[in-house]
Specification:
alpha+beta, Serine Threonine Protein Phosphatase 5, Tetratricopeptide repeat, Immunoglobulin-like, 5-stranded mixed sheet, 3-stranded antiparallel sheet, 16 helices, 8 strands, 20% strand, globular
C-alpha cells in the first residue's frame, strides 16, 4: 500500500511555486519567475510546512519591489478571480496562496502600511485563510486592527466573516498568541453566531471553546444570550452550544452540564467494564466494552467520555480524554457501548511501557476504571 503524501509536500511544492510565479509575472512582467522558482526550490525539500511558507514569502520580498505597498498591490492583483456566489474551492483555501499573507505579516505590519496590509489580508483570506497573519497586527496595532475586524464581521463574503472570528481566537492552533482580552471579541461573536455559514459558526464555537480555558462563566452567559435571542436556527444554535462546551464537558464542569440540562449525578452505574486484553503493545489498539445500567425512575441522558492514563516516555503519567457518545437510558435499561482505543504516540502524547488505565466518565464524573499493561512497540 502506498504511503500518504505528507501535507508539506502536497501543500507547498514545485507546482504551486511555479503557479505563483506565473501569476506574478503576468501582472508584473519584470518579476523574475525563473529565478524565483530556482531559489525557492533549492531550499524547499529540507523544510517543514510553515518554514516552506516563510521561505516563499521571504523570496517574494527579494523579487518584488522594495516598497511594501507596491509589492502588496502586485500580490493582490495577482490573486485569481473570486466570486463568492459561484466559488467552488475549499473553504479553507489553497496553500498556494499562504505565502501571500505571510509576506504581509513579515513585511507589511508597520504603521505606514497598516491600511493597505489589512485590506490585502481581507482579499487574501478568500483564497487561503489569513488567520495566522492577522495576529501580528492584533498584537502590534490592536485598536486599528479591531476596527477592521468589526467591519469584516459584516462582510458579504463568508471567508472574511470567518476571519473576524478565527483570527481573533485566544488559542488558535499553530499560531502566535495574542494579547487581546478575551472579552474584547464578544461583540464580534455576537455579530457572527447567527451566520448562515457553518464555516463561520464552527469558528465561533471554537472561539468560545478557547475562552472556556480562562472564563467559563463568560462563555455560559454568552451562550445563554444567544439561545434566548432566537436569531439562529435551533439546530445550529444546538451545534454551537455543543461545540463551545465540549472542553468543559470533558472536564466535568458543573455549569456546562446544567446549561445542557444534564445531571452531574445521574442515576446510572457501570455494571461491567471489560478490556479485550490485559496488555497491548504501543502502536496497537485496545478494545473497551462498558455496560451501563440506569438505576433511577426517570430517563437519564448521559454523556460518556473515555479517560486514558498512560505512562509517559520521560517520566510519570499523562492523561487524555476522548469523546464517547450520548445516550438516553430508560429506567432499568442496560446498554453496552464499545470503543477501540488506539495506543499511539503523537506529537503531544509520548507513550512508554508500563501500567495504564481506562476510566469511564459519565456526565463529568469518573465512575469506573480498568488497568492494562502497555508493552513496547513490536
Amino acid at each position: 500500500m502506498s504511503q500518504p503524501i505528507p501535507l508539506k509536500e502536497s501543500a507547498m511544492n514545485q507546482a504551486r511555486v511555479e503557479s505563483l510565479a506565473g501569476d506574478l509575472s503576468r501582472v508584473a512582467p519584470s518579476f523574475d519567475a525563473e529565478g524565483f522558482v530556482t531559489i525557492v526550490m533549492a531550499q524547499l525539500a529540507r523544510l517543514e510546512l510553515k518554514a516552506r511558507i516563510a521561505c516563499v514569502a521571504d523570496t517574494l520580498a527579494d523579487h518584488l519591489p522594495a516598497d511594501v505597498s507596491t509589492a502588496t498591490a502586485i500580490l493582490v492583483t495577482a490573486l485569481p478571480p473570486h466570486d463568492d456566489a459561484t466559488f467552488t474551492g475549499s473553504d479553507f483555501g489553497l496553500y498556494t496562496y499562504a505565502p501571500y499573507s505571510d509576506f504581509i505579516a513579515r513585511y507589511g505590519c508597520t504603521r505606514e502600511n497598516l491600511d493597505s496590509s489589512l485590506n490585502a489580508l481581507k482579499e487574501m483570506t478568500k483564497h487561503f485563510t489569513a488567520e495566522d497573519a492577522l495576529r501580528y497586527f492584533l498584537n502590534a496595532y490592536p485598536d486599528e486592527t479591531m476596527e477592521a475586524v468589526v467591519e469584516w464581521s459584516r462582510d458579504p463574503d463568508y471567508h472574511v466573516r470567518r476571519l473576524a472570528s478565527e483570527g481573533t481566537r485566544p488559542k488558535l492552533p499553530w499560531s502566535p498568541r495574542i494579547t487581546l482580552p478575551v472579552e474584547a471579541t464578544i461583540p464580534i461573536l455576537d455579530e457572527l453566531f447567527s451566520d448562515d455559514s457553518r464555516f463561520v459558526t464552527q469558528s465561533v464555537a471554537n472561539h468560545l471553546n478557547d475562552i472556556t480555558a480562562t472564563d467559563p462563566e463568560l462563555v455560559l452567559t454568552t451562550l445563554g444570550r444567544w439561545r434566548d435571542s432566537n436569531r439562529q436556527r435551533p439546530r445550529e444554535i444546538e451545534f454551537i452550544v455543543r461545540q463551545s462546551l465540549r472542553t468543559l464537558v470533558k472536564k466535568g464542569h458543573p455549569g456546562a452540564f446544567e446549561f445542557l440540562g444534564l445531571s452531574i449525578t445521574p442515576a446510572v452505574d457501570v455494571a461491567e467494564l471489560r478490556l479485550d486484553a490485559p496488555a497491548v503493545a504501543i502502536g496497537n489498539s485496545l478494545g473497551v466494552d462498558c455496560t451501563l445500567r440506569a438505576t433511577g425512575t426517570t430517563t437519564e441522558r448521559v454523556v460518556i467520555d473515555y479517560v486514558l492514563t498512560y505512562p509517559r516516555a520521560r517520566s510519570g503519567h499523562g492523561e487524555a480524554i476522548f469523546k464517547g457518545t450520548t445516550l438516553d437510558l430508560d429506567p432499568g435499561e442496560s446498554r453496552t457501548v464499545s470503543r477501540t482505543q488506539p495506543m499511539r504516540s503523537t506529537a503531544s502524547r509520548k507513550l512508554a511501557p508500563g501500567t495504564g488505565r481506562v476510566q469511564i466518565q459519565i456526565n463529568g464524573r469518573r465512575i469506573a476504571e480498568a488497568a492494562f499493561e502497555l508493552l513496547p512497540a513490536r
